[in-house]
Every structure is written in structure tokens, then in C-alpha cells.
Amino acid sequence: MTNHAFENTYGLTNEQLERLDEAEDLMLKGALGRAETMLLEMLEADPECIPVLSNLGHLYGRYLSEFENAVNYYNKVLELEPDNAWARDARRRYLRYVE
Question: Would residue 83 count as lying in a domain?
Fold first, then answer.
């Protein structure tokens, strides 16, 4: 069994969990285009998947310096889950580069 970085509080399938792990590994290895493609495909299949939205925000903010995209993904997380403190903090971090 794979050890996932977060508890499966969103009821993700094993396939979703494995693909998220793979996308995170790709980011760490610098394969950003492949990670982006994988996450966008996952988002297309489930447009309200908070872990995918969060990972896209992280990818665009931290790795690609596309701060406006990062903020947009964190905004979507917060629309779905207004009490998500992690997304709120991450959005604040990148907002200062956009405003």
C-alpha cells in the first residue's frame, strides 16, 4: 500500500491517490510539464477535486512562478472549502506578486 502525504479525507479513489503521488514526484524531479498535464487531466475528470486544485496552485506558484494561475486555483479551493487554511495561506503568499 502506498503511503500518501495526506489523509484521504476527500474520498479519492486509489487511482486518484496514485496519480496525485505521481504528479507530486514529477514536480520534485522537475518534470513540470508532465506533472501539469497529469493534474489538468485529473481536473477535467473531477473539476472540484480539492487535492488536484491545490496541487495545481502549488505547481503554478512555486515551480512555474505563474502567480495569477496559482491564485486562481487557490480561489477555486476556497470557493469549495472556505475554511481551508492551507489554501488561504498559499493564496496570500502569491497574491502579493499579482496585486
Answer: yes
